[in-house]
Amino acid sequence: MHFFHLLAAFLSLVHLGTAIAIRSAPSYSDDLARKRFWPLCAAAYTNPTKCIDKWLNAQLIRQLTLPCDEIFKNDTCSGYTAISPTLRVIALVFRGTTTDGQLFAEGVESLKPNQQLGKGYVDEYFYNGFMKLWNAGMKDDFLAQHSRYPNYDIYITGHSLGGAMSTIAVNYLSINYDIPTIYHMTFGEPRVGDSAFVEMHDARFGGTTGYSYRVVHQNDIVPHIPPQLFSYEHHKTEIWYDNDMKTADYKTCSMDESSFVLQKDILLVW
């Protein structure tokens, strides 16, 4: 599978002995992506326990897998909560799409952002998937750990569909809970909401006051859906790897999507 080839390439530069400092440097870090966020995402596709213990010295609190919504009941959404006392991190992680049928389901329900979240509207399928997991136990797991360790950093991440749910998650938490700092990074994330939602997200997590990055690999189709024709836009900030991701060679695009220069490198028109 393309995902696991990408995983091998991205993890090829990992050396766990190197320290990572992010509190004083909110800019994107290839090192941080490879050593923390990407291993968390990869672990969501299996039993996370061994992966997160090996790569992050972290403990699994619970993994949940449920039908994403009431229409396509055979398609599941999955996510887990983990904690690393060594890194002083609580993590919420969401798994990506697992079948072509699930991609079709996402497309059917994404003709227009129709679920309100804060000041904007988001894709209903992504929202329902997150809320199913949140209400089934992720909420209780997260709030219990956050209450016990209020000074731990919060990591929220996901790949593909999981990236979309993680973007729903960071905004939902920011709106409904007093959580001062969230580190948000996604890989191959589709567009999630409309311009009003994107404006809200960027105001909360963009610039020097927040930490939110979308990592995009060359020729990945998922970041191009749902199309802008259906009133969807991407939030900031895009990190573009126009290579095989075996090196830390990337471009940063912090402009609005209407001004993106990086997406134009792909010969796809939406």
From TrEMBL:
The lineage of its organism: Eukaryota, Metazoa, Ecdysozoa, Nematoda, Chromadorea. Residues 92-228 form the Fungal lipase-type domain. GO terms for biological process: lipid metabolic process. InterPro entries: AB_hydrolase_fold, Fungal_lipase-type. Keywords: Signal. The keyword Oxidoreductase does not apply. Residues 1-19 form the signal peptide. This is Fungal lipase-type domain-containing protein.
